[in-house]
Amino acid sequence: MPTLRHLTLILLLAVLGILPISTQANEATWQALKEGGLVILMRHSLAPGIGDPPGFERDRCETQRNLSAVGRAQAQAAGRAFRERDIPIAAVYSSSWCRALDTAELMALGPVEPTPWLDSFFRGQGDQALITQTAQEQISAWQGAGNLLLITHQVNITALIGGGVGSGEMIVLRPTVDSFQVVGRLSVSGQ
Cα(34)–Cα(27) distance, rounded to whole angstroms? Predict the structure, then answer.
């Protein structure tokens, strides 16, 4: 019988993302991805801080909040997890923010296409309604044989699914006629 100390350690590891709380649910989500036709909505990997510093310019990475070494390792580990499981990725779209583009590039799952409908609208940086509506339309329209990988920001994902996500966390969606349904969540640690 597990002791209270043992249960506390398991819960702590799960919260830190080191040990998934539901391995069975994770495996079911990975299996669904193997079959293709899904959309992976991913928050960029760890980039410490909130928002962007004063003087932010979209085309100048040095003015932005960027991935940490842990965030870079997290993105590489996520890409490895996809390759090791032979998950088919048909297309990769990313926000044009450097932390999102770097996440997509470091995952190395195919050519990355920056797109404005994944850009952040945090603190009024973009039109929230238009960005969210366009993302919803793109997700529900996906009909590829492989999976569509979308790298974006926490605010965008919250607007789409009504809940938050951690850095590098993925929400797997099944497109439906006018919307989508959540298949599962995945998180891959780069540590």
Answer: 11
SS3 of 98, please? helix
H helices within the chain, ranges in order? 4-15, 23-35, 69-84, 98-107, 128-141, 154-161
Alpha carbon distance 168, 40 (integer Å)? 11
4 alpha-carbon distance from chain centroid: 33
Answer whether 140's CB lies under 8 Å from 175's CB.
yes
Over residues 23-81, the pLDDT tens digits come to: 566 899 999 999 999 999 999 999 888 777 677 677 886 867 888 999 999 999 999 99
Q: How far apart, in whole angstroms, are the C-alpha atoms of residue 73 and residue 51?
A: 21
Structure token pair of residue 66: 């960027």
